[in-house]
Amino acid sequence: MPGENLSRDEARERAALLSVDGYDVSLDLRSAVGDAGGEPRTFRSVTTIRFRCNEPGASSFADLIAPSVTAVSLNGKDLDPSEVFDGARIALEDLAAENELVVDAQCAYSRTGEGMHRFVDPEDGEVYLYTQYEPADSRRVFANFEQPDLKAPFRFEVRAPEGWTVWSNGAGELADGVWKFAETKPISTYITCVAAGPYHYVTDSYSRTFADGTTLEIPLGAMCRKGLAPHFDAEDVFLVTKQGLDFFHENFDYPYPFGKYDQAFVPEYNLGAMENPGLVTFREEFIFRGKVTQASYEARANVILHEMAHMWFGDLVTMAWWDDLWLKESFADFMGTFANVGATRFKDSWITFANRRKAWAYRADQLPSTHPVTADIRDLQDAKLNFDGITYAKGASVLKQLVAYVGQDAFLEGARRYFKRHAYGNTRLGDLLSVLGETSGRDMTAWSRSWLETAGVNALTPQVRLEDSRVAELAVLQEAPETHPELRPHRVAVGLYRLTEGGALERYARVETDVEGPRTVVADLAGAEAPDLVLVNDDDLTYCKIRFDAASLATLQEHLGGLTDPLARALCWSALWNMTRDGLLPAREFIALVLRFAGRESDIGVLQMLHAWTHTALDRYASPAWRETGGALLAEGALRELRAAGAGSEHQLAWARFFASAASAGPDLALMRELLDGTTSVEGLEMDQELRWSFLEPLAAHGAADESVIAAELARDDTASGKRHQVRCLAARPSAAVKAQAWAQVVESDTLSNALVEATIAGFGQPSQRELTAPYAEKYFAVIDRIWRERSIQIGMDIVSGLFPALQDRPETLAAADAWLAAHEDAAPALRRLVLEARDDLARALRAQECDARAR
């Protein structure tokens, strides 16, 4: 649609011209219930914007994506909607010094999780609404100036169906049938929010008295669908919330500025969560319907704290444009783990960070689309795609390195000055570097240039020379890829480990040093006893790929399970995985290491990550000729560990899920069927509903559960969650007709909601069904350009990434991707980026398969 993709240049021009004094937004959501008569559902949205223009007589535009506009008034003059509204923008001519714009529109409810999302619960027919805007979908709900640097106070009022409750950023009350909400502080459009419906709502409160004697009272609330209320552990959500508020108040020295603190767990959510001040929204999968491991609770706590950090980094102080998205996301990602370790029961969260979050960053930083942490964001489509592993996990890793570089006290004092200096304003890179320079006494320019303004990941490898069983010299070699040759300064710890008589692998020496250039000698380790393992980046101080010298690698291949330090063990697993992805370690050798040592892994989050990596190793990186053998070994090993795990333990649950995902042979499938039917059991393993679905999908994928079995399971679990599982299982069945139907539902129709599109795509692409999905490789390249033009960006991303024929891992598929890219040089840059990324993953898989084939 013309004008829908706002450019950075347009935003800068408008910000230079306009300043906004306030919004009044009135929404009538009573149309959300009842019979729509087959017509697309819309709601009335009336917006009044008060704004100033620095150049009276100039022209500009307001943003609105809506099916129709009933009336437009500018400074008391009625404008013809057909002349000023093009479907995405409202033209504003001859502006005065002070202006008032009133827009009366019919906006559309969403089924894609963008704008005003409408969900009907299949369990009880209840309707739930919530909004999701980032980066630029508030214009689907009300007219505005949709860019982060045109902040303003907002007043919302909402008419809702009788019996509903409505929430927004500010405190609200119902009067004469209208929910009216307190005016917000100046905030950006993308973090305004409305939730409405018969939500189950629980309350609590937080209180803190500060050193000056003042007391801060924050009303707390947490909500979910009524159908999830029996599973909602709101007390744990509130516990982490209070711990986080204490932690950030102690470290930020700036009281939470947005009044109340509600947290809504909502259905069919595209993201993990969103930091709307006063009304944070989360995906409802964070409410656990069955038994989960502590890793799931840790992940939820991390997200709660990540969003809470945004109240300061992002909401109070906001980036001027999406180029500096890292100013909020990198900080929140770092602070989520920092606070989890510092304030909650999850004291080992840095292990999860090293093993899981950094894996996301390392992958993203080796794609052709990698970019500096502070990025070049030309438009809103660029912005949407830059919510990626660079902006989040690499940025957070760089900040962890920064804390080691300048010291924690200087870092936090810099944050405190940053909040006080720029409260309710917008900032750029230089604003943060300025305060960090003040507090640390260091020149931040060179650090920023190396870490924030260049792309790519370095590899650090130890080089050891021994004499008489002693270290004569130990150096660290630094490498960079040809495409991004920057060698960076790294603050690292180098650890030396030796084997004990009992078989343990323990650290006996550690030195922190600054690595610069291609080779750095670690002088302080000269003369140390010869190590069995040298671990560069011990304690995970910097962001790099770890490599091993030959002796250290040999030690790990025989004694990885003997590493006594869980963080060191996680770092070694991560390094071995990176070597597998890079085609330096055959996939079958990585799988062998998992089968040999994963059963001894104490950290449940690391274990679950190993399970995920192992599937990728088998399905993508192993030689096709070895996959059947490897699959049998995985299933055998998983069943062995399942039977050996403690009854009722979280490790037992993790191995049960892994066994289900690995099983393909008749006896294994029969065992899963018996576990589902209750004709056999594993001591301590509770077959709750979520675990039942985990067992049913592989049964369906291997033809051992037909449509009637899936229907019977849905009858047991006739809920929104059950429906998603059912759709995934149906699409997983090994039938050409099933694949054709799934393809048509996603590609040729737009009737599925975002959640069911995701479920259908997940079921469609089964590694065991490469032949069934092979015909869709050619179809994929024929339709993606149309899909990108016709669907919302979220659905377009889901389809383009999710249906890429990655399982057709042959040179011909790579050639087809190259041919499409060559023929579509003028396609939307965001679309080309998605195809380039998928193409690069495929090329990496083919290289890894060649490495694995040589290991025969």
Strand tally, please?
28
Largest sheet report: 12 strands, mixed
Question: What is the CA-CA span between the terminal residues?
Answer: 54 Å
Structural class: alpha+beta
Shape: globular
β-sheet strand percentage: 15-25%
| Total DSSP helices | 28
Percentage of residues assigned to helices = 40-55%
**Taking all residues together, what is the mean pLDDT?**
96
- Unreliable spans are none
Radius of gyration: 28 Å
Which characteristics define this entry?
28 helices, 5-stranded mixed β-sheet, alpha+beta, 20% strand, 856 residues
Task: Characterize the structure shown.
The protein is an alpha+beta fold and 856 residues long. 43% of the residues lie in helices and 20% in strands. Strands 1, 2, 4, 5, 7, 8, 9, 10, 11, 12, 13 and 14 form a 12-stranded mixed β-sheet that branches. A hairpin with a 4-residue loop joins strand 18 (273-274) and strand 19. Helix 13 (566-581) packs parallel to helix 15. It is globular. The mean pLDDT is 96.
Topology at a glance:
Elements: H1 8-17, E1 18-28, E2 42-53, E3 60-63, E4 68-74, E5 77-79, H2 81-84, E6 89-92, E7 98-110, E8 115-120, E9 127-132, E10 154-159, E11 165-168, E12 172-175, E13 178-181, E14 194-197, E15 200-209, E16 215-224, H3 234-252, E17 261-266, E18 273-274, E19 279-283, H4 294-310, E20 318-319, H5 326-343, H6 349-365, H7 380-385, H8 390-406, H9 408-422, E21 426-427, H10 429-440, H11 444-451, E22 459-467, E23 470-479, E24 490-499, E25 505-515, E26 519-521, E27 533-536, E28 545-546, H12 550-559, H13 566-581, H14 587-597, H15 604-621, H16 627-644, H17 650-662, H18 666-677, H19 689-701, H20 707-716, H21 720-732, H22 736-748, H23 754-764, H24 770-773, H25 776-790, H26 793-802, H27 811-823, H28 829-853
